[in-house]
Amino acid sequence: MKIDELHSWHLSPKAAVALQRDLAKRLVDNAPLDLQQVRTVAGVDVSVRGGMSRAAVVLMRLPQLTIVETVCAAEETRFPYIPGLLAFREGPVVLAALRRLQIEPDAFLFDGMGQIHPRKMGIAAHLGLWLGRPTIGCGKSHYIGAYQLPADVKGAHSRLTYRGEALGVVLRSRANVKPVYVSVGHLADIESAVELTLRCTTRFRLPEPIRAAHKAAAQ
Q1: Where do the H-state alpha helices sit in the chain?
Q2: 211: β partners
Q3: What is d(CA 122, CA 145) in angstroms, rounded to the nearest whole number?
Q4: For a surface tag, which of 3, 41, 117, 206 has the fewest beta carbons within 10 Å of its beta carbon?
Q5: Rounded to the nearest 5°, which phi and psi values hold at 98?
């Protein structure tokens, strides 16, 4: 998969924050996905252990959710752990893995945040600008924002707001388990992001492409 260089990753934390503010102006979060045309979805996850980061990308075909391609990459972890700057820690190794893909996905599901972020630049949003493809963030834990818990049935969701702005939703991906936090990264809207997330979710809490990427990254 060919990916153009958008910017350098070798920045100070202060410069990284300034870059996020600038890049956020380019995000598109009001473009409904044509889900009839989304035939392949890639799940993306990163495992960081012992100073090394390992990224995995698993491409699945819809609606069967069969694995078409799996790629991984490992690199030294060079950026410190700083809340709000996860993309600078994990982005380079994710891009290294993505460049190994032979098939370009129609959409991407990231284990992490899209625009549920103080500057709307979670890893799914940030890398969406690099990829120029629809990206969606599906986080496991509450990061920022206020919300009401959705009803305890699969598909129920409630709006998550931060400083008066709706950034995403809290989605019940299955009954009787904790919800997930879904937001647009780039080139989608929240309604189609939720629908695609549900189409990729079976009997587990996380969508199948993300589950598969998590397993591959942990190997």
Answers
A1: 13-24, 86-98, 123-131, 190-199, 208-218
A2: none
A3: 14
A4: 3
A5: -60, -35
| CA atoms of 74 and 149, how far apart (whole Å) | 37
pLDDT, tens only, 67-124: 999 999 999 999 999 999 999 999 999 999 999 999 999 999 999 999 999 999 999 9
Given the structure tokens 């009954």, which residue do they identify? 175
> How is residue 184 written in tokens?
């647009």
CB 70 within 8 A of CB 7: no
- Per the domain annotation, does 182 fall within a domain? yes
pLDDT number for residue 153: 96
Q: Quick one: tokens of 16? A: 């990284």
177 falls within a domain: yes
Residue-wise pLDDT for 131-150, tens only, equals 999 999 999 999 999 999 99
Instruction: Please report which confidence band the pLDDT of residue 15 belongs to, taking 50, 70 and 90 as the band edges.
Output: very high
Mean pLDDT of 7-13: 97
CATH number for position 102: 3.30.2170.10
Residue 20 inside a domain? The answer is no
Could you tell me the residue range of the domain that residue 207 belongs to?
30-218
Number of domains in the chain: 1
Overall size of the chain counted in residues: 219
What are the residues whose beta carbons fall under 8 Å from the beta carbon of 58, sequence distance 6 or more?
42, 43, 67, 69, 70, 209, 212, 213, 216
In a domain, 65, yes or no: yes
